[in-house]
Amino acid sequence: MGGPRSSSHHVISERRRREKLNGSFQDLRMLLPPGSKKDKGSVLTSTRNYLNTLKAQIYELEEKNRKLEMQLVSMNEARETTGWSGRVKVQIMKASDLSTELQHINVGLTVKAACDIIALVLHVLERLKEMGLSSLLSVDAYTYSSQMNLFARVNIKLQIKV
Amino acid sequence: MGGPRSSSHHVISERRRREKLNGSFQDLRMLLPPGSKKDKGSVLTSTRNYLNTLKAQIYELEEKNRKLEMQLVSMNEARETTGWSGRVKVQIMKASDLSTELQHINVGLTVKAACDIIALVLHVLERLKEMGLSSLLSVDAYTYSSQMNLFARVNIKLQIKV
DNA sequence: GGTGACACGTGACCC
DNA sequence: TGGGTCACGTGTCAC
Q1: Which helix (H) or strand (E) holds A53?
Q2: Mind listing the UniProt keywords for this protein, alphabetically (chains A, B) (predicted)?
Q3: Which CB contacts under 8 angstroms, 24+ apart, belong to B2-9?
């Protein structure tokens, strides 16, 4: 038949190989970002660049992820030690002389959270002033910390207008 | 010289092209995960799979990122809108009839935080019961959410013992 | 000695 | 007409 050693097996095998190879090239083209050049060389270099950008993207995302998790962890730690649903514990204290004279009322706030005690007191007093609710008898507030956990204690004694 | 049209330019050009192509193949091999087959076909298919896994990885990371950001945003919104130290806003509401009869007092809690409203109410009522402070007139509580941010509103009306 | 992978030169095609 | 790309058949090497 043909030339020496024209063994068509070889030809066909090589043909199949080429087809398979081109198929893989085609598969790759589909995965590349649109607008990329289509020739084999460009496919290869584009793929190279694309791989690098994807890897960089993954690195950035992982780093961002770590930071976000850090923030969440610190936030959760800050509140997981603060009581029931975790955030704040508010106690309305028993008025010491409520049953006798009915003229005073104690509002006790125990805030188990990292907060600014001064801002807290100012806030409460502002509210009371806005309300014109009562005349103020006394205010005492203090903070203390029990193993990394801040507590704010505020006692506000009011006299009910008569 | 050689056969017809042996124009060595063409031959050389084609040689250069092949070299360049093979160079790109080599570049690609370096980027693939170690242990991959090295022949051209395997390089192409491995690259294809690798691209897909990287894309999937990016998708997962982005999704995880979104969830984390969601949590952070809701947390921050929950505290940035609450005044002072940010965590919880407590308002003592003006008693509607305080100036006239002095027998009722409204305790209004607006908790701008993601919390369990039932646990909140139970907690407050427990405290009040412990204190034997007053008789309970009414309790109403509800939650509503304003764009991903949970609010809990509790109104407790007490009658002061006379 | 058959199978698969590779490089090569060559003809064809297209800006 | 010339540079770039492609597919093809073939020779060769390795297992």
Answers
A1: helix A40-80
A2: Coiled coil, Transcription, Transcription regulation
A3: none
Which of B59, B74, B85 would you mutate first to test chain A, the one with the most A CBs within 10 A? Answer: B85
- Number of neighbouring beta carbons within 10 Å of residue B90: 20
Return the closest nucleotide (C1') to the Cα of B18: C7
Amino acid B71: pLDDT: 82
Per-residue pLDDT tens digits for B53-89: 999 999 999 999 999 888 887 766 655 443 323 334 4
B56 touches chain A (CB under 8 A): no
CA distance A156 to A109: 8
* Sheet (strand B134-146) strand order: B89-90, B104-111, B149-160, B134-146
**CA B58/CA A57 separation, integer angstroms:** 7
User: How far is Cα of residue A157 from the mean position of the Cα atoms in its chain?
Assistant: 40
Maximum average pLDDT range among A106-110, A132-136, B63-67, B73-77: B63-67
Residue nearest to nucleotide D8 (CA to C1'): A15
Chain B residues 21 to 80 whose Cβ lies within 7 Å of strand C are 22, 38-41
Q: Does B70 touch chain A (CB under 8 A)?
A: no
Inform me whether the C-beta atom of residue A55 falls under 8 Å from chain B C-beta atoms. Answer: yes
Round to whole Å and give the CA distance between B60 and B135: 54
- Contact by Cβ (8 Å): B110, B151: yes
Tell me which DSSP letter residue B2 carries.
-
Cβ atoms within 10 Å of B93's Cβ, excluding its own: 18
Give this prediction's pTM: 0.56
Contact A133 B65 (CB under 8 A): no
